[in-house]
Amino acid sequence: MVKKYDFKEIEQTVGKYWVQDKDRIFSSLQFPKANEKLYSWVEGPPTANAPPAIHHVEVRVYKDLFLRFKAMQGYIVARKGGWDCHGLPVEVQVEKKLKLKDKKEVVEYGVGKFIDECKTDVFKFIKDWNESTEKLAFWVDLDNAYKTLDTNYMESVWWSLKEIHNKGLLYKGHKVVPMCPRCETPLSSHEVAQGYKNVEEKSVTVQVKLKDEDAYLLVWTTTPWTLPGNNSIAMHPDIEYVFVEDKGEFKGKTFVLAKELVPKYFPEHTINKTVKGEYFKDKLYQPIFPYFPKIKNGYKILMADYVNTEEGTGLVHQAAAYGEIDYEVNKEHEVEFFHVLDRQARFVPEVVDFAGMFAKDADPLIIEWLRKQEKLFVEYAYKHDYPFCWRCDSPLIYYAMDSWFIAVSKIRDKLVKINDQINWYPNHIKEGRFGNWIAEAKDWALSRNKFWGTPLPIWVCEDCNHLEAIGSIKELMEKGKINGKPIGKPIDDLHIMTVNPIEIDCPKCKKPMKRTPEVIDCWYDSGSATFAQWHYPFEHKAEFERAFPYDYIVEAVDQTRGWFYTLHVLAAILFDKPAYKNVAVAGLMCDEKGEKMSKSKGNIIQPNEIFDKYGVDATRLVMASYALGNQLKFGDSQFQEIVMPFFNTLWNTYNFISPIIAEKAKKIDPKNLKVEDNWILLKLKKLTIDLTNHLDNHEYNVGLTKIMEYVEEDMSRWYIKLIRDRVDDEKEHLNSILSHCFETLMRLLAPYAPYITEYLYREVYDKSVHFESWPRLETLTSDEENLQEDMANAREIVAGVLGARDKAGIGVRWPLAECIIDTQDEKIKRAVASLSELIKKQTNIKEIVVKKFAVEYDMKPNYRNLGKEFGQETADVIGLIQKEKKKVIDAITQGNEAVNLGKYKIVPDHINLVKQVPVEFSNSDIKGASIYLLKSMNEELEEEGFTREVIRRVQQLRKEAELQKTDRINLAIITKYPNLTNHADHIKEKVGADSIVIAEKCEKNFKHTSRSKIKDIEFEIRL
């Protein structure tokens, strides 16, 4: 057993224990038998194509902490790991590795070979993940982890997609969707929500000439690149617009804009005409750019209710191909649709001035073109939130294209209703961030124009447009053909290189149907984990139905629009149930300044870096010290100021109690319990109740605070202090108490700090704490409640008395005759009556008296508070207060809320009361009481004080001599203080001396010597 807390030694030792126990640990993670209590949990699957980061550690701490707690409560907690395998992160990384620039080059490389590379690359860092998981003590079954790339998993996903198709919720539509030009694929709204950044870009206001009037429409946009795609302008029919003649830079020109916005653009002007927006309905204007001059029914003004005057000009530029609202408005008015960009967001050849340029890169050139053509009215920098690809970080482009959608908008009410059945921690997310999101849920853009993913199992007939959804391998084998012949060979992989060659005879026109080429959003894969990990409904139907809805999930707050959302949508559609009953939401990880961690800022912390510096238990405690949902500021200060001191205190506490609890403890005898024994057992009982409640409510941080308070305040700084003098005489009795406290404390702390609790528990009991039961809950009696309150007040009194000693400069080893407590608080009076002996012993006071203490008061005005209240009249008020000093003092000391001085009301905050304490007393105040300490000492008290000081110095010299507590000594004390001889026997007993010499001189040689002064009297101690 090491003397000091050494996390590296602990982790190494405990790691060996767990290797020996690996079969038992593995068994505990499996699905329970029919007669066992299940607590179900589903893993939010990470992707192993990058090393684990510190934010992964955060949520894995919460998972392990809570699941250990439930396991100790007697549940079988099936802990099956999972891996998210498909999607853009892997595909983008493989493209870079193979130096493939676009989809065409992937096809040339070979789709099958590319898929194989993805299968390998997705587990590129699996070793790092496994090692991190093991190091973190996150007990989870990774040997049988579900993988979204497995054929069984994908078959379950296909089943679910067919169910959604059969319910009429899966459709193909031509819509404007957010598209990543780098990945050449659309994204869903929940993906877009994860990638917004605040950026500063150029916005422009453009002059657009009306076709039949000598006036120019002022049209504002924050996306200049969309202007070549302009096909209409929107105005509100009820807004007042004006024809305004400029008297400034564009003198003589007439412009049209919303009336209330004129001052923003025209310091000097004349308004020639005011009309409602309806006036402009269907009026034509000249195209801004010349590339598509003859579009059908275009370049006209449309009426739209969404137009407002909060920003811009009250006229809205519309490019139907690049805006969701633009698209719908133009479609409604049958304005011709056209693209100016390709799928990589590069301008098409027709846009001759910018052909081949990336859209957003063209902004400055487009602005310059407008300036040269005298179509630019004004440009200025504009800050706004803009979406970026959540994986490759490219700016997204809203782009009209064919895509497959799940009609989530049709089930919004169901999503909201089912959300009512879920417990959210913290609760405000239920109606707030998550509730608001699902209440406005958009249709899910499901399809991706990529290769690495679950193929969309829809076969399409090009002749009659019939759709056929395939929901299983068996169905595909029965219906499918390759080159007109039955498939024959069993299908063991559902990726595109396997399923794309398969055709199905159209049941309507008998022509061959081909699979639509898209794969699905990888978030659909992870959202299917509740059922697909079981290969439901093809296998394990009973197990799934027993586990579903899952009792608990936890991930970070960004998953409210990610995994939490997709789980919720699929469960609602497929099962009319919530996917989960309880969801804990972790806050986002930041550095200790509150800044988001990023490579560019250089504030990223690697998990192993922090593990090596402070240890796993310390890392877990820092993670658990923040309330769920709150931003987690992660840095050295939390470790150095809070966590490491706690572990050192815990370690020192164990070092004190370990010799006492070394022998097997007997049952606690209630008859032998002293008041402090009853109290520490009561505090443990209360801790067990409180911690259980806090963990059940996912208040991990509050529970941790309670544990730390028990160890640092209740046990270390109070109870051990109270029992030090009892250890030699009551070792067997204290063994029973401390053994119970230690065993219970280790069980309570185990979910938070699995290493140190395992290490210490095995030191004493030679078995694992993690297979022990959670401590039994007991209710507190009224007497126990009173004792808890009394001891709390007693500790406050002790602190107050020690404070009065400090003021007087009298150390606690010097006994004082009397302490007076002046209080009207009945609970403080009760505490003194029941715990006076304990208070006296801890403060070294011979007598404590509760009574009224006559004391005079003086008063000083509180100039700051008076100035805030009375302003220029402050001087007059101060004069009145000084004149009526006694009246004011009497009123305030008698507890009055205010005293009236003429027209002024004086309250306690307006003055500072100053006690006139008699010189023979030292005073301190605590809440509800004033303490007055008699400072004078008689000769007898002086002797006792000298004796205590000498004993302390002898004990210090023993420690410096590295003597054990059982080692006997011969002692000499050389001093001119004559009265110390009266206490020779007491000193011998306290310091373990066989002989003692107290004299002014001593010729005998001793091995160890110390010299010091006590109140200017010299002492030399030899032993």
Helices and strands, with pairings:
Blueprint: H1 7-20, H2 22-28, E1 38-39, H3 54-72, E2 76-77, E3 80-83, H4 88-98, H5 103-109, H6 111-121, H7 126-136, E4 141-147, H8 151-166, E5 170-180, E6 185-186, H9 189-192, E7 196-209, E8 216-221, E9 232-235, E10 240-246, E11 254-258, H10 262-265, E12 269-276, E13 300-303, E14 315-318, H11 324-332, H12 363-372, E15 376-387, E16 397-406, H13 412-419, E17 423-425, H14 428-431, H15 433-439, E18 444-445, E19 447-448, E20 458-460, E21 467-469, H16 473-479, E22 480-482, E23 485-486, H17 496-499, E24 503-505, E25 512-515, E26 519-520, H18 522-527, H19 529-532, H20 541-547, E27 553-556, H21 563-575, E28 582-586, E29 589-591, H22 607-614, H23 616-624, E30 632-634, H24 636-657, H25 675-696, H26 700-723, H27 731-749, H28 754-765, H29 782-808, E31 816-823, H30 826-843, E32 845-850, E33 856-861, H31 863-870, H32 874-883, H33 885-893, E34 899-901, E35 904-906, E36 911-916, E37 921-926, E38 929-934, H34 939-960, E39 969-975, H35 984-991, E40 993-999, E41 1009-1014, E42 1017-1022
Parallel strand pairs: 1-2, 3-4, 8-11, 9-13, 17-28, 27-28, 29-30, 31-32, 39-40
Antiparallel strand pairs: 5-6, 5-16, 7-8, 7-15, 9-14, 10-11, 10-12, 16-18, 19-26, 20-21, 20-25, 22-23, 22-24, 24-25, 31-38, 33-36, 34-35, 37-38, 39-42, 41-42
